[in-house]
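re: that chain from earlier
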Amino acid sequence: MGERTGIITFRGSPLTLIGPEVRAGQKAPDAPLVANDLSVVKLSSLPPGKVHVLISVPSLDTPVCDMETRRFNTEAGRLGEDVAVAAISMDLPFAQKRWCGAAGVNNVRTLSDHREAAFGQVYGLLIKELRLLARAVFVLDKQGMIRYVETVKDVADEPDYDAALNAVRKLL
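^ sequence. v structure.
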């Protein structure tokens, strides 16, 4: 896997990403993830015929990731049945399940990349120095093509919610 620098920072300090840049217009790469019940879920097995929003966060137990995932949970409730949102992090599935219960998050499915870091590597989001995922948002159309990508420049910042949600609405 190649390394990319100059893409993201953490509070101004540069970080290294492992993996290729994923761009709008390409087929969404597949990767195995772990669900809260410890089953393996491949991205290719996500419910077909839906617009999918994949949010990549470093850890649900941090303030910015917490705010972001709660915001997407609220928005997912407004977008309807044709949209599915998944939050992907390196958190253990047990921690994800606990966090969702405590936060009242039920419109976002949490998936863990802790076993293989496969998602992080194929989406070019694995932070070499931290073994965490960079903050990013991907919007996939109903055929699994990536239509919107935002890799947030500084890991401590929130994504552009309006741009991501506008991308979703254009696909409905």
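The chain has one domain: 26-171.
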